[in-house]
Amino acid sequence: MFFVYIVTEGTRVANDLWLSVWSSDNTTETLYYPKDPPPFGEDVQAFFLWMYIILGLAYCIIMLARNVLGNWAGVFASKKMHQTAFTHVMHSPVSFFDTTPVGRVLNRFTKDLDNVDNLLPQVKFSFFFFFLITY
User: If we measure between CA atoms, which residue out of 73, 66, 55, 70 comes closest to residue 18?
Assistant: First the structure.
């Protein structure tokens, strides 16, 4: 998961760098020697535009993969937590059910699963985002 976040941020940075190179004033003069023909044809601006489009599409595809992978991991974590909690409750002694109302157990299940389903993906995204920004 961490690798996908690194690749996503790397692609975003590459896209921004390409745009800054393209928008600099002396880009077309410094790419090739004036006496030699350019390796990518005469239309330098088209080359920059196509590279920018390719980097943008790569960023979109990697971002989609990151979101799909993150959602899959969230669903897997939610299923695992529910299965573990349910197993532990079912193996509890009968005295637990005598003293604890069923509504309290059900509310605890729903609250914990809500936290896993809604808060965990946000915290995970924030952690990876701020970790990559600071390092």
Answer: 55
